[in-house]
Amino acid sequence: MYLLFWRPQQKQAKKRREMISQIKKNDRVLTIGGIHGIVYSISGEEVTLKIDERNDVRIKVLKGAISRVVEDDSTPGAGPGDGNSMIEPQ
Fold this sequence. Notes:
Largest sheet: 5 strands, antiparallel
Number of helices: 1
Order of helices and strands: HEEEEE
Strand content: 25-35%
Helix content: 10-25%
Number of strands: 5
Structural class: alpha+beta
């Protein structure tokens, strides 16, 4: 029972803790609420994300609210209108 349920959860939790601890300035991230942003600053458990570069819009979120670090825009399927890239106002 331990091997089927507990161990995989421990591995996932460890991987997530490592990802969150390695977040640094200028990383592109996705929050659990679906907001794409770029890490502007990190202060303790708070992360300030820049979500609109033209208007310098920033929001503060907890580190735990970061779902994943987005590697780059060259991933398959990434591009305008697919939900994986930041949308710029026209």
